[in-house]
Design brief:
The complex is a heterodimer of chains A (231) and B (214).
Chain A: H1 6-39, H2 45-57, H3 60-71, H4 76-85, H5 93-117, H6 121-129, H7 134-162, H8 166-172, H9 182-191, H10 196-228
Helix pairs in contact in A: 1-5, 1-7, 1-9, 2-5, 3-8, 5-7, 5-8, 6-7, 7-10, 9-10
Chain B: E1 3-11, E2 14-22, E3 25-30, H1 37-45, E4 52-57, E5 60-64, E6 69-70, H2 73-76, E7 78-81, H3 93-103, H4 113-120, H5 135-148, E8 153-157, H6 165-181, E9 185-190, H7 193-199, E10 202-207, E11 210-213
Parallel strand pairs in B: 3-9, 3-10, 7-8, 8-9
Antiparallel strand pairs in B: 1-2, 1-4, 4-5, 5-6, 10-11
The chains are: A mainly alpha (231), B alpha/beta (214).
Chain lengths: 231, 214
């Protein structure tokens, strides 16, 4: 029952690739956004906040449509990437990674933001008066204290990316081996009269991955609370 | 070594203006809470910017609004001991102690880890985590951490206020030993008369952001 066929493996491997790339690529902007939202007050902050969290509540098909309009072969950013860098992302696995990154970003930013907010800024000031530059204080105090939350954010983003469906199928369609990630493969199997077995196998796999991600990230977030408990 | 301080700042409707000198030994900044004592320390440490003023140590300017000089806190070599110990929770006591020591310029270091840990009676705590220490032990480690950064001026912001009486009596003698051992000015903020009487040679009384009597 749990032997995966080559077609199923292909979908799993593609989902892994898309999930990893989406997570790695969204880490730097995700952390920057989390830091800015956690530490600064500025005009239009609620607008930035809304933009980051919007994919969480927007119908995924709308997110996919916006991506298609912007990054599609006729979209302004899509044409720019094509002409300047020769990169096409519409209907490619790279496009699936972009869609997954956008959908995972709110979860990533939220976990990171909470952990950065939990770090007592007065510890950073103490470090500064002990002779540490802003950067040194950041790397020796802020970053290590919030690290479990940063990893938790990355795990959640990966889990979301691994199983993202709506925005992905809207933006890059359903091409086996290129954009047919695990949930899209499940959807396709369900369309065929003989596809129940493979669909159930892949569904169980995604339940396991999601469960591990939730349990793992919650455990890490608890570690943040333990770590930053100031004395 | 002597500090010249002349700072002015505004916090909302509250106006702070204070000019004084700090010589080696303890100078107490005394006054009720809300008198602006902590703000003055923050300005000297470089974590709050005065609206106007000048801060200099032995001719070296740390802040001068007219000349647009504002030395970063990490370059001032001004030690700051807070009301709470603010130990780094993810580091051992030893790594807390060595944090500023490693960052101090070697030629400027005047305190060795062996000497300071012995002076403060914390040699047996080095491997421990800050969370496992008592309040008095934490404050002694915090004091040691600051001394090991070899500051030229020591700011103490109600270092005993968060301790109960027994802990106060535990930490006070160490502050006296520091005063007698170190040849640097110490600015000691407090609203406790008893601490002023016991520790300070010079008392500056603050009220509503201004110096009342020097």
């Amino acid at each position: 029952m749990f032997e995966l066929t080559p077609a199923e493996w292909q979908a799993v491997q593609l989902s892994l690739k898309v999930g990893l790339w989406a997570t790695v690529l969204s880490l730097p902007p995700g952390f920057l956004l989390a830091y800015v939202l956690a530490r600064f007050q500025f005009p239009l902050k609620s607008l930035l906040n809304g933009l980051v969290y919007m994919p969480l509540v927007l119908p995924p098909v709308v997110t996919g449509m916006i991506l298609l309009l912007l990054f599609g072969t006729r979209g302004p950013i899509g044409q720019f990437l094509e002409n300047v860098f020769g990169i096409t992302i519409a209907f490619k696995w790279t496009g699936a990674a972009l869609a997954a990154a956008i959908m995972g970003l709110p979860l990533m930013v939220r976990a990171m933001r909470l952990s950065i907010e939990a770090v007592d800024r007065r510890l950073e000031l103490a470090a500064r008066t002990l002779g540490a530059s802003w950067w040194r204080a950041f790397f020796t105090i802020t970053l290590p204290l919030s690290l479990p939350g940063i990893i938790a954010g990355a795990i959640l983003s990966f889990a979301k990316s691994f199983g993202e469906f709506g925005a992905t199928i809207t933006f890059v369609s359903n091409i086996p081996g290129e954009t047919q990630t695990l949930p899209i493969a499940i959807y396709s199997f369900l369309q065929s009269p003989t596809g129940d077995g493979p669909a159930i196998r892949l569904a169980i796999l995604s339940v396991v991955v999601s469960m591990l991600a939730i349990v793992g990230s919650e455990w890490l977030e608890r570690r943040v609370t333990d770590r930053v408990r100031t004395v | 070594m002597s500090f010249d301080i002349d700072v002015e700042a505004r916090r909302g409707a509250f106006h702070i203006a204070a000019a004084f000198q700090a010589a080696p030994g303890i100078t107490a900044l005394f006054g009720p809470s809300g008198a602006g004592k902590t703000s003055i320390l923050n300005m000297i440490a470089g974590v709050m910017k005065p609206a106007r003023g000048r801060i200099a140590v032995d001719g070296q300017v740390l802040f001068d609004s007219a000349a647009r000089i504002d030395v970063k806190p990490e370059r001032r070599r001004v030690g700051y001991i807070f009301q709470d110990a603010r130990l780094f929770p993810h580091m051992s006591v030893e790594n807390n102690l060595l944090y500023g020591f490693k960052l101090a310029p070697p030629e400027g270091r005047y305190a060795s880890p062996e000497h300071v840990t012995a002076l403060l009676g914390i040699s047996h705590l080095l491997a421990r985590r800050p969370a496992s220490l008592s309040g008095g032990e934490q404050q002694r480690v915090a004091i040691g951490r600051v001394i090991l950064a070899s500051p030229r001026l020591l700011l103490m912001d109600e270092p005993l206020a968060s301790l109960d009486d027994a802990r106060k009596q535990e930490v006070l003698p160490y502050i006296e030993r520091l005063r007698d051992d170190l040849k640097i000015p110490i600015l000691y903020v407090t609203h406790a008369r008893a601490e002023v009487d016991r520790l300070a040679a010079i008392v500056i009384t603050l009220e509503n952001g201004k110096i009342k009597a020097a």
